[in-house]
Write a structure and sequence with these properties.
- The chain has one helix and eleven strands, in the order ββββββαβββββ.
- By secondary structure, the chain is mainly beta.
- The protein has one domain.
- Strands 1, 2, 3, 4, 5, 6, 7, 8, 9, 10 and 11 form an eleven-stranded mixed β-sheet that branches.
- The protein is globular, with a radius of gyration of 15 Å.
């Protein structure tokens, strides 16, 4: 089972499916469908270099689109949040893919500052985000269009 944790709250994800677009490019786009309690949530981002073949995913650098991260976490929390992974000066979530029994493993831990205006949390300190997601590769589209 995969999970996403933010601070002291954790959510189990039943499965995750990865689709990659523009795999033959220097930078590819990806969408990760996450099944949480029968609902599909979407994380998105880029992979560098573009994985021209499934075996090229291992060790590839993944960057998470932070708007998609905010949407997933806001849905799970049940309230709006804007996260700044690794602080407002960095504001990025980047890591490398590794192998998993399902295909690839998305694993990252980052301290996250958050937008105080939204009053998401009842404290004034960063929260730790942990991604521990095993994903099956469902499609790798090499060209510009799927």
């Amino acid at each position: 089972m995969s999970r996403l944790q933010l601070g002291d709250q954790s959510w189990t994800l039943r499965k995750a499916s990865l689709t990659i677009y523009h795999g033959a490019a220097a930078e590819a786009d990806w969408n990760l469908a996450l099944d949480h309690a029968g609902e599909t949530l979407w994380l998105a981002g880029t992979i560098t270099p573009g994985p021209h073949a499934p075996e090229a995913l291992l060790g590839a650098e993944v960057t998470v689109d932070l708007r998609s991260l905010d949407e997933v976490v806001s849905h799970l929390l049940g309230r709006a949040v804007t996260l700044y992974p690794n602080g407002q000066e960095v504001c990025a979530l980047v890591f490398r893919l590794t192998a998993s029994p399902q295909g690839v493993h998305f694993a990252a831990t980052a301290p996250c500052d958050w937008d105080r205006y939204l009053q998401t949390f009842d404290h004034d300190h960063p929260v730790t985000l942990e991604l521990d997601i095993d994903a099956a590769l469902t499609a790798l589209h090499p060209g510009r269009l799927p």
